Amino acid sequence: MADKKVIAVLFGGQSSEHDISCISARTVAGAIDTSVWNVLLVGITREGRWLLAPSLASMEDGTWRESEVSAVLSPDANDHGLYVTENGRTRTVWVDTVFPVLHGLYGEDGTVQGILELARIPYVGCGVLASSVSMDKAYTKLVVQDALEAIGVRQARYLAFRREETEPEAAADAVEKAFAYPVFIKPCNAGSSKGVTRAEDRASLLAGLEEAFRHDRKLLVEETIVGHEVECAVLGGHSGVSASGVGEILAAEDAAFYDFDAKYYNAASQTVTDPVLPGGATEKIREAALAVFRAVDGFGLARVDFFCEKDGSVVFNEINTMPGFTAISMYPQLWAARGVKLTDLVARLIALAEER
Ligand SMILES: Nc1ncnc2c1ncn2[C@@H]1O[C@H](COP(=O)(O)OP(=O)(O)O)[C@@H](O)[C@H]1O
Ligand SMILES: [Mg+2]
């Protein structure tokens, strides 16, 4: 049908969360109303090649990676779309809207959003600044501090290190002076717990620093927060933003913390929506989620993650501007718990993109 609008779903990407993105994008693409939209599936390989995926099925079995049709976003605002190259011939394909279902670096960090701004194509989710600030755990802390303090929510105390300035033994001395073990070591720009470790002693701290620096040139060492791991979904735009209820992650007993395997492969890791939290912290968490979203100048969607301590104190952990959209992901589940079906959620996100 000629009168359908065109939406490009971007997926995969060059980050450590490539595989999760492929699963998320299948969920998202499958929920787009095809009576309104022509859906183009644009996969980015781990090596950074942009390919037109022939079908949802090719995303499922991975054969999209063998596609011989390349499709790259043109930064030229007059093209308003993709350069599609097939058999050595390139044509321009108009795109009305883009849904970048990309997690992590080179997708959730403002890079792809920058191309979309240049091209003047409406896109789902946060803009350049919100994406890049939220991607970087050190900058997030700086940007949200005042807004959180105003409502009595704290962040874990931390030390930040840059690889080129860091001598491991001196860094370990500084950490030991500031905190008691255990401490958490995290790359500033990663995700899905990649490169995150918990150190019980100096040896594991030194190993953890080395590991985190493999993922990024900047890292944080944080005091350990003991408490419930809770998340809140935010949805909205300039005309109003709402927070979902709260969800809790119950990591499997055998997982040291909610690490990558526990998050995505361990069936014993469960999520529950609307848990009973100490001190009735739910409302505070919802308030803080909106405050964080506003502080980073968020738009569209984000999942905001916290700890809730035994006494009901709320501690902000991180914000994800393109949260997971897999079948077990918290973001869609939190909205489902509020009666928002996946198809309606996806339609709302696309409508917000167009509104902006
Ligand atoms: N300061 C902390 N105290 C206790 N646990 C933490 C702390 N920081 C991180 N964690 C644990 O590590 C996991 C991954 O850290 P997180 O900051 O969420 O990074 P990622 O971007 O990889 O999701 C969290 O889900 C949590 O289980
Ligand atoms: Mg996290």
How are helices and strands ordered from N to C? EHEEHEEEEHHHEEHEEHEEEHEHEEHH
Runs in which pLDDT lies below 50 for 5 or more consecutive residues are none
Mean pLDDT metric: 94
* Each distinct ligand: adenosine-5'-diphosphate, magnesium ion
Q: In percent, how helical is the residue content?
A: 25-40%
Distance between the termini: 26 Å
Number of domains: 3
User: What can be said about the biggest beta sheet?
Assistant: 6 strands, mixed
- What CATH calls the topology of the largest domain is D-amino Acid Aminotransferase, Chain A, domain 1
The CATH class of the largest domain, by name, is Alpha Beta
The percent range for strand residues is 25-35%
Number of helices: 11
Question: Strand tally, please?
Answer: 17
- Find the CATH superfamily of the largest domain: ATP-grasp fold, B domain
Shape: globular
Assign the structural class, choosing from mainly alpha, mainly beta, alpha/beta, alpha+beta, or little secondary structure: alpha+beta
- Rounded to the nearest angstrom, the radius of gyration is 21 Å
Proper CATH architecture of the largest domain: 2-Layer Sandwich
Strand order of the largest sheet: 8-17-16-13-14-15
